[in-house]
Amino acid sequence: MVRVGIVGISGFSGKVLLDILLNHKDVRVTYVAAHSTTGRVDVIWPEFKNRTDLVCEKYTLDAATAQCDVVFLALPHTESMNIAGKLLAAGKKVIDLSADYRLKKISVYKKWYHADHKDVKNLPKAVYGLCEIYRSKIKKAKLLSNPGCYPTAALLALAPLVSIHGEKIASITIDAKSGVSGAGKKVAEAFMFPFVNENFKAYRVLSHQHTPEISQYLSSMSGKTWDVNFVPHLLPVDSGILETIYVQLNAKMTDASLHLLYKKFYKTETFVRVLDIGQQPELRNVVRTNFCDIGLAISENRKMVVITSAIDNLVKGASGQAVQNMNIMYGFNETEGLV
Ligand SMILES: NC(=O)c1ccc[n+]([C@@H]2O[C@H](COP(=O)([O-])OP(=O)(O)OC[C@H]3O[C@@H](n4cnc5c(N)ncnc54)[C@H](OP(=O)(O)O)[C@@H]3O)[C@@H](O)[C@H]2O)c1
Question: Smallest Cα–Cα separation from 253: which of 299, 188, 204, 313?
Answer without folding.
Answer: 299
